[in-house]
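User: Let's play a game. I give you a shape written as tokens, and you guess the letters that built it. Ready? Here's round one.
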């Protein structure tokens, strides 16, 4: 495991440059609950208990009223592709083609209507607008962490969406 020290990649599914929060460990990341929830298959974000504002990605402080009294709410784990970009050239190091990013509609009843995400487990030409996609959570090589003279590898997960078969 310690040989993984360096920049983590995972079979073209993950790059640290696309990670919103590169270190998940709770000692370093105040939204680590997001990852704990992902590990249980839940897709979540934060809602302000003061003014009701819903942030995505999750926050530690409400951008509307600056309260830090936030709660975690669940989002749907299925949605429909609104539009997408499929790249077959200029792919970042560590990824294979196709590299697909999509705007996804989580539905009119979702607390967050639209999210932007990678789409994996999908062949070139494998999705079109309107297709259904679902959340997929996968392990990411751990980050080496050193804090208060202790060293450990922080276990990590990340998410994308994949076509519903
Ligand atoms: Zn607020």
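Assistant: Ready! My guess for every position:
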């Amino acid at each position: 495991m310690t040989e993984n020290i360096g920049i983590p990649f995972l079979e073209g599914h993950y790059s640290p440059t696309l990670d919103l929060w590169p270190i998940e460990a709770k000692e370093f990341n105040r939204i680590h609950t997001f990852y704990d929830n992902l590990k249980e298959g839940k897709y979540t974000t934060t809602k302000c208990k003061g003014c009701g504002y819903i942030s995505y990605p999750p926050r530690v402080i409400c951008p509307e009223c600056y309260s830090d009294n936030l709660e975690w709410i669940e989002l749907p784990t299925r949605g429909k592709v609104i539009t997408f970009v499929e790249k077959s050239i200029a792919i970042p190091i560590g990824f294979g083609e196709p590299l697909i990013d999509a705007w996804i509609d989580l539905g009119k009843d979702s607390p967050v209507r639209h999210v932007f995400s990678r789409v994996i487990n999908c062949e070139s030409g494998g999705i079109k607008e309107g297709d259904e996609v679902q959340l997929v959570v996968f392990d990411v090589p751990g980050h080496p962490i050193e804090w208060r003279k202790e060293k450990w590898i922080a276990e990590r997960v990340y998410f994308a969406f994949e076509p519903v078969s």
